[in-house]
Amino acid sequence: MGLREDLERYREVGEQRRQDLAEFISHGELGDGEKIQVPVKIVDLPEFEYDQLDQGGVGQGQGGQPQPGQPVGQPQPGQGDGDGDGDEEGDGDEAGDSAGEHEYYEMDPEEFAEELDDRLGLDLEPKGKKVAEESEGDFNDIAQSGPKGTLDFDSLFKRGLKRKLATDFDESYVEEALKVDGWGVDEVFRWARGENIPVSRAWIADRARDLDDEERSTWPSIDTMEANVEQESTAARIRREGVDRVPFRREDERFRYPEIEEEYEKNVVVVNIRDVSGSMREEKRELVERTFTPLDWYLQGKYDNAEFVYIAHDVEAWEVEREEFFGIRSGGGTKISSAYELADELLSAYPWNEWNRYVFAAGDGENSHSDTEENVVSLMEEIDANLHAYVETQPGSVQRGRHGDKVQERLGDADNVAVAHVGGRDDVTDAIETILSTEGGGDSE
User: Fold this and answer.
1) Tens of pLDDT along 286-323?
2) Where is the segment annotated Disordered (predicted)?
3) Averaged confidence pLDDT in the chain
4) Alpha carbons 61 and 40: distance in angstroms, whole number
5) Residues with Cβ < 8 Å from 283, sequence gap 6 or more?
């Protein structure tokens, strides 16, 4: 590997490679939940440093020759720099001063979602629901009425020209038929119709009035006239004479107007539910935040428009702001169904046919007697959502609550229900992968 390749490798490591996302999600500082700052390790590039040899040092061959084991003296300023003026250059920090330091690479949610997809091998495809707006596109559509400024002259001319070609005929040829001995207007009109000549009876009558008696017997028969007079085609006449006049009619007018384009916005509403009862101590709350925050980032990055609803509950449920969602704590008991009842009520503002919905709940698996089987399961079945997920946090304990297991038993076969268990920080990434890889359900428009 040459120096150039080596430098490129170090630049990649030092400037582009980010700390592994799994480590960041599990152990990194998530911040305020709005900024995604991933630590970046700073790696120094290798560089050459020239030592300024002391005069009379190694290689002098005189009294300054050091003996084996004797340290070589420190280089003196101005010696060995080659400029002869005694000034020292390159007073910057020595190489290696910043080794081991960290800076932060700030991601937006969209980039975070791409990185997480790559890290977990996922690629959730957002569903497009709700017409965001209608906009005017190119002037490709045609109407029979409109402002004069949008009149389509090309269409008008083509329609007029088409009519001219359809109604045009060789006038001199028809006039010769009027010169057949014994023929009048009616005979010529019937003959012209038989020959598919688009001439009106009025036109024939008008031309017949202009003929004198001698001209009316020029041809003994129509067959003789046809044998001696050649009919000129419309195309040949146009090539010879050009087009002096194109007959336009009002019904030929067409007006251009812009196509109406419907732009579909990918909308999502995420309902985050957290048990804040007395059993949800600090470590459990921290694991909920460490799981929910990347999920929020991920969905925000995947959808054009993302809205978040936060519900805290003990025996009762109430809506809270994000700032207090992860820190609030109550001393009461637990009734999870109260949160789903409130979620169902709040989701009425986000119709299922227009919004994608995700309902994420978290707790330590404890619930009041029979509430899971009698209330929560049925509510999860009734609430339309792309994904229902329950995250059970029981750090450092093999004993788990029963709520998550009961949901798994009753709804485990559904393609839009996920249950994940988080016993510590190292389980967070696996829980996120379990949740996102389960996403299904719901028709998209």
Assistant:
1) 999 999 999 999 998 888 889 999 999 999 999 999 98
2) 47-146
3) 77
4) 51
5) 393, 395, 396
DSSP string, 294-321: HHHHHHHHHSSEEEEEEEEESSSEEEE-
Distance CA 267, CA 251 (A): 45
Contacts of 62 (CB under 8 A, 6+ apart): 56
Contact 126, 356 (CB under 8 A): yes
Give CA–CA dist 21/81, Å, rounded.
Answer: 47
For 40, list phi and psi in degrees, rounded to 5.
-120, 125
| CA-wise closest residue to 375 among 415, 410, 324 | 410
Domains and CATH numbers, the chain: 1-47+96-107 (no CATH), 148-257 (no CATH), 265-436 (3.40.50.410)
Token pair 């790559």: residue = 118
Q: Are 181 and 221 in contact (CB under 8 A)?
A: yes
Alpha carbons within 13 A on the beta-carbon side of 386: 25
- Write out the two tokens for 292: 């929910």
* pLDDT per position as a tens digit, 364-383: 999 998 999 999 999 999 99
Structure tokens at 353: 């046919």
Q: What is the mean pLDDT of residues 9-17?
A: 47
Beta bridge partners of 318: 312
SS3 of residue 241 by DSSP: helix
Q: What is the mean pLDDT of residues 134-160?
A: 64
SS3 at position 430:
helix
Give the integer Cα–Cα distance in Å for 306 and 297. Answer: 10
pTM equals 0.56
- Pull the structure tokens for residue 107: 């991601």
